[in-house]
């Protein structure tokens, strides 16, 4: 996973290229999410923002999250109702998330052939896919190792 500064620089460049505003609040929301090893829930974000910006309210956070998702900078973890920073926002294809059910660590995969196969099969069935969310829950190597050692 790239460091926070690298992610924010990538986000700045991407937003500039697309002609959209990367406001200070959007930047801070991305930084807070990127600083979390697993997914971060919207109200956890709000609590952290409220410490820095007393005027932060739920609509502020949700608007920032919507923007970051639209720009491909953040992904929503559907099963956890949480958000994770995208380590490679320049990647314009589908993604899959590996989520450790013990420590909450999230890793992103880009198996484009899986996304393409699902999209093709859906199209063959007359279905138009708006968004793919593939989440694989399990145990990361560190948690499996510590469980075996304990």
Automatic annotation (TrEMBL):
Keyword Zinc belongs to the record: yes
Lineage: Bacteria, Pseudomonadati, Pseudomonadota, Gammaproteobacteria, Oceanospirillales
Main localization, broad class: cytoplasm
Pfam families, alphabetized: FUR
UniProt entry keywords in alphabetical sequence: Cytoplasm, DNA-binding, Iron, Metal-binding, Repressor, Transcription, Transcription regulation, Zinc
Subunit structure, as described in the record: Homodimer.
SUPFAM superfamilies linked to this entry: Winged helix' DNA-binding domain
Subcellular location: Cytoplasm
Gene3D superfamilies: 3.30.1490.190, Winged helix-like DNA-binding domain superfamily/Winged helix DNA-binding domain
Family statement drawn from the similarity comment of this UniProt entry: Belongs to the Fur family.
Record InterPro entries: FUR, Fur_C, WH-like_DNA-bd_sf, WH_DNA-bd_sf
Protein name per Swiss-Prot or TrEMBL: Ferric uptake regulation protein
Domain of life assignment: Bacteria
PANTHER family referenced in this protein's UniProt entry, alphabetically: ZINC UPTAKE REGULATION PROTEIN (PTHR33202)
Organism field: Modicisalibacter tunisiensis
